[in-house]
Amino acid sequence: MVKAIRVHELGGPQVLKWEDVEIGEPKEGEVRVKNKAIGVNFIDVYFRKGAYKVPSVPYTPGAEGVGVVTAVGVGVTDPKVGDVVAYACQPLGSYAEEHIVPAIKLVPLPPSIDPVIGASILSKGMTTRYLLQRCFKVEPGHTILVHAAAGGVGSLLCQWANTIGATVIGTVSNKVKAAQAKEDGCHHVIIYTEEDFVARVDEITLGNGVEVVYDSVGKDTFEGSLACLKFRGYMVCFGQSSGAPDPIPLSSLATKSLFLTRPTLMHYNVKRDDLLEAAGEVFAKVASGVLKVRVNHNYPLCEAAKAHEDMENRKTTGSIILLP
Asked: In the predicted model, what is the mean pLDDT of the chain?
């Protein structure tokens, strides 16, 4: 038996319960990992609330972590018992002292990367990579808009895009978050609680708009984000922390020949080679100092409900980690 967070009914943070569970032994192609640090992502909230469907209830949340391999199933030759590995994948279940993970979904954690850093950067870092390089290729001279610029992915987007040579406009909710976004390479910070972000983007870009908007907020910002785009601009909606956006007629995109996409990380790491390449680049940028990982909040695993509550109430910045 191990300790884990369990969800018996969908709902608010209070449905996250600290319980004993039996995880069993790894089957063919699987590995058992004893977690050292567990990443918290907003997608965990989507599953908990029912915005994304879980296979069954009860379930253990979480899809990201770093730990030590304690057992391997039949046919697994890599990794080996004792190896330190990282993962950001389904099946869910990382909010636990130990977790069973498919071997092909694990990546080696470089010795230079602390487990806490690894668990806070893998999912968000690979997300940032595909958003900037594959979903839409940001190039020097581009101007981009990043919502939630002080959040986990937002912080990395600002840093990474700045190193590419793009002009970064970011939105945040308060002055503290604005200071962090500025430090992370955001050239223009908009406090959306104090000013209209659409009007400010129009002012900053001299009426031209931006090449791409990275929007993880959803309902509250969706229409405004579309208005910020230049002709043939890209609207990348990769989250919905404020709720799902209202439907729009396809013809509304024709006013500026806009592109609209709703990508997810798993579709950019379908092949193992893609996963290893993405993880390797993220870890290399952390090791070289190109990316600064902001692990601003640590919670004991048993206090996962508090972590979710703080995240949903926008009390957090950067990454959130649960410690078994």
From this structure: 96
